[in-house]
Amino acid sequence: GSAALYLGELRRELAVGFRRPYQLGGRLVTPTVTAGIATEGVRRFDSAGGELATGETREARGFVGLERSLGKGWLLALGGTLTAWRDPARVSAHVFGGRARLTRSSETAEQPVLAEAELSRTMRRAALVAAPAMRVRGVTLRPIVRLGWGRQLPLQFAFPLGGTDGFPGLHIGERRGGREAMAGLGATIPLRGPLVVVIESAVGRSADGGPLLTSHGWVAGARAGIGADTPVGPMRFEYGRATGGRDALLVRLGRWF
pLDDT tens digits for 32-80? Predict the structure, then answer.
């Protein structure tokens, strides 16, 4: 059994889970039951990046299925879901569906690969995030690919461009929509002791509908700064700039979940 309580400025969540491994046909599988409730103030912005009033949302999620370790950090989960939510317009809804999720965790507990698909009678959502790390002459390179597609997504389940780290030069949580496509490359260069220089460049687009990949709506950006690995997680202070003259400062203290 497990339980976790998350308390953040914008999101509060309580999550519980129950797992027990069994031998099935000579293979180890883990029946799994998880549930969570959350409230979130979703950040919203206008087309110029001006911040609007946050969208207050509520959600409850449940999952019943099987998990199987594939070795070397890979984990596959298949099962059924129940999702209920309330959006900023105070409209409530719930759906039953199925979910497939494949993840690969690293030694730092981060997930360099995440692929998932969720299907119900109304809401559909699929996402792929890959950010593997490789070392070249002491420099850590991390190519980043993010793809997201959804239909009839509640506000809190839509894809913000760049995910929890945001897009270079834009606000974290900006350009949220039902489509996301992003590719980038990050580099971490040792400086002295725990200090490192962090550089990242990216191109991406988001939209509320239409095709995932098209020639319209793309934005490019880059950011750089100083970071450090500490016992409580990475510390980062970076400045970014995007096409159109947009710029933003990223301050990250500790590990984000």
Answer: 999 999 999 999 999 888 999 999 999 999 999 999 998 888 999 999 9
Residue in 206, 208, 203, 201 with CA at minimum distance from that of residue 219: 203
> Measuring CA to CA, how many Å separate 198 from each of 129, 141, 188, 201, 238?
20, 10, 5, 10, 8
* CA count, 13 A, side-chain hemisphere, 129: 17
List, for residues 178-231, the tens digit of each pLDDT value: 999 999 999 999 998 889 999 999 999 999 988 888 988 899 999 999 999 888
Task: Please report, for residues 30, 141, 147, 182, 199, the alpha-carbon distance to residue 159 in angstroms, rounded to integers and kept in the order given.
Answer: 30, 25, 9, 11, 23
Q: Taking the CA of residue 77 as centre, how many other CA atoms within 13 Å lie in the half-sphere pointing to its CB?
A: 20
| DSSP of 44-88 | -B-TTS-B---EEEEEEEEEEEEEEEEETTEEEEEEEEEEEEE-T
CA 178, CA 124: separation in Å to the nearest integer?
10
